[in-house]
Design a protein that fits this description.
The structure holds two protein chains of two kinds.
Chain A lengths: L8 E10 L2 E11 L4 E5 L6 H8 L7 E6 L7 H4 L2 E4 L11 H9 L8 H8 L14 H13 L5 E5 L7 H16 L3 E5 L3 H7 L2 E6 L2 E6 L1 H7 L3 E6 L4 H5 L4 E7 L2 E6 L2 H11 L4 E7 L2 H19 L1
Parallel strand pairs in A: 3-7, 3-8, 5-6, 6-7
Antiparallel strand pairs in A: 1-2, 1-4, 8-9, 10-12, 10-13, 11-12
Helix pairs in contact in A: 4-5, 8-11
Chain B lengths: L9 H20 L2 H21 L5 H35 L1 H7 L6 H27 L7 H14 L1 H13 L5 H15 L11 H6 L4 H12 L8 H25 L1
Helix pairs in contact in B: 1-5, 2-3, 2-5, 3-5, 3-6, 3-7, 3-8, 3-10, 5-6, 6-10, 7-11, 10-11
The chains are: A alpha/beta, B mainly alpha.
């Protein structure tokens, strides 16, 4: 894989308005070959519009949108992408194999049916009508349709909604395999553990702008809070007065403590309660970081208002 | 990673068009909610009014009604195959997905058009077979072939009309609207009752309707009436162009 500087997908100062609503407000996004990028944000943050811009479904009002250095309106650029949209009901009377054959026919060098079936885990579904499948099975078929054209860039919009844990794990494994082969992925998801498990880079957007971006670890680090949990008889109101303790909550026998300096709090906890058990110390997850980041933004706005 | 697109050989592009059209046909032929109304209404109406209740009119009326119910049957794959399916697919997100995929330009509409032409031809053939089984159509083989061909091509203005309606209405709302167009237009064009038996004012109105012109062409190619067809064919072509332009304007605005 040679290192080219042309991003596989690019948004530069992209602005898109729907009437009075500015859905995307000067967004910059650049995706390198083989990179898995998770696009996170609350509902209405502009994720879908950003993806729609990159797919050529809507035109920017200003700014640049490119796929492989070309306009997404160019069919040649789109022949290098695979797409899985959240809201797409496929014809129920068509069999899975027929859907696969149709979608493959759009691409210059598609994968074989067997390869698609293997990657998406739909080998047993090929002869069945799409309308007779469960929600999770339909998602797997849509995933197969997304990868059948041997794309260099995959757009996956909420790919694992409606899947059970096992199916989700299988799809994650398939995504990792594709990324290992050099396929870049734009993933939008509500499941933060999904982004946490897969993404090399996370971009959090809100109100049509990039709020923050970085690796999962970098994002977590922005929220310096660590969660401490233990079984203890200590009085929570007393603990709340300790230095470096941000927050204390009792849940039955369990004590939940949030702290920015967990080492000193843990040391004091162990000294204060020799009978303390089930101690657990955990860095804030991406979910917490995410809520924190988007909530902080709201708080700032409320203060400004 | 190269920055040039992988080339798509022309043969594969052609195959994409063919696969799209073939898949569209398979999909609708399998859907009872589409096939049953488009085949049952014209055949049942023909049996009822052309055969069972046709005591006085005799063979002439039966031959006339065979042609006009064929035209009636041809209208629906165009109106519903295009209008309802486009309206539904705009809502279901299928059209959005297809636009995001590298589907060759126009394959979506061409696929639907070929499907509607095939379904229209099928409806006409069904009526002809039915009439033959019930004691003969009174038409020559060449007249019957001409009627099938007229049906297959005559569906096009109704495809265009359906397309336009499909761009105006989303989802379930399209079917009732299309029925409000379909049934009155069929009646006012003299497809159920010969025009000459309708009130004079309604007779005057008929030339405004595309179905009237298609009926005139069909009556002429089967040799039932010898009227010049050029004007009617031009009228049908004009309607097709008009509805296509209206639909294209709508689609452009939808983005």
């Amino acid at each position: 894989m040679n290192a080219s500087n042309t991003p596989v997908a690019l948004l530069q100062g992209a602005i898109k308005r729907y009437g009075k609503l500015t859905a995307v407000d000067g967004l910059d996004l650049s995706l390198r070959p083989g990179e898995l990028l998770a696009l996170l944000g609350p509902n209405g943050a502009g994720k879908s519009t950003s993806v729609a811009l990159l797919l050529g479904l809507v035109q920017v009002d200003s700014g640049r949108v490119e796929l492989f250095g070309q306009s997404p309106q160019q069919i040649d650029a789109r022949r290098r992408i695979g797409v899985m949209l959240q809201e797409a009901r496929l014809p129920p009377s068509l069999r899975v194999g027929e859907l696969l054959r149709l979608t493959s026919s759009y691409y210059p060098n598609p994968r074989s049916e067997a390869e698609c079936a293997e990657l998406a885990g739909i080998g047993d579904l090929l002869k069945r009508p799409y309308g007779k499948l469960s929600g999770g099975q339909q998602r797997r078929v849509q995933f197969a349709l997304a990868l059948c054209g041997r794309p260099e860039l995959l757009f996956l919009d909420e790919p694992t909604v409606g899947m059970d844990i096992e199916a989700r794990q299988k799809l994650w494994a398939a995504m990792r395999l594709l990324v290992a082969e050099g396929c870049a992925v734009v993933l939008t998801t509500h499941y933060l553990e999904e982004a946490e498990a897969l993404a090399q880079r996370v971009v959090v957007i809100d109100k049509g702008r990039v709020l923050t971006e970085g690796s999962v670890d970098q994002l977590r680090a922005k929220v310096a809070v660590t969660r401490i949990r233990c079984c203890s008889d200590l009085d929570e109101h007393a603990v709340e007065q300790w230095s470096h303790v941000d927050e204390v909550r009792r849940d039955g026998a369990q004590l939940h403590i949030a702290s920015r300096e967990p080492e000193s709090v843990v040391r004091r906890l162990l000294q204060a309660d020799l009978a303390l058990t089930e101690l657990e110390v955990r860095r804030a997850g991406l979910a917490e970081a995410f809520t924190h980041l988007t909530r902080r933004d709201e708080a700032v706005e409320q203060e400004a208002a | 990673m190269n920055t040039t697109a992988p080339s798509m050989p022309a043969a594969r592009v052609w195959r994409a068009y063919l696969t799209e059209a073939g898949t569209e046909c398979v999909r609708y032929m399998r859907a009872p909610s589409f096939m049953l109304p488009i085949t049952l209404f014209p055949t049942l109406f023909y049996l009822l009014f052309g055969v069972v209740m046709n005591h006085a009119g005799g063979e002439q009326v039966q031959r006339y009604l065979l042609v006009s119910y064929a035209v009636f049957g041809v209208m629906s794959p165009g109106l519903f195959g295009f209008g309802v399916s486009l309206a539904m697919e705009r809502e279901s997100g299928l059209l959005t997905l297809k636009r995001a995929l590298p589907m060759p330009p126009g394959a979506y509409l061409i696929g639907k058009m070929l499907m509607a032409m095939a379904a229209a031809a099928l409806v006409v053939i069904l009526l002809l077979v039915l009439a033959e089984l019930l004691g003969g159509t009174g038409y020559s083989i060449s007249a019957m072939l001409a009627l099938v061909a007229t049906g297959a091509l005559g569906v096009l203005p109704f495809c265009a009309l359906g397309l336009w309606v499909g761009t105006l209405v989303k989802g379930q709302g399209a079917a009732p609207i299309l029925n409000m167009i379909y049934l009155p237009m069929a009646f006012l064009s003299g497809l159920w009752v010969p025009l000459k038996q309708l009130p004079h004012a309604l007779q005057q109105l008929a030339p405004v309707l595309p179905a009237y012109h298609l009926d005139q062409v069909a009556l002429s190619v089967t040799g039932f009436e010898s009227v010049p067809t050029t004007g009617h064919v031009l009228a049908l072509a004009g309607y097709t162009a008009l509805f296509l332009v209206l639909a294209a304007r709508r689609l452009r605005r939808l983005g």
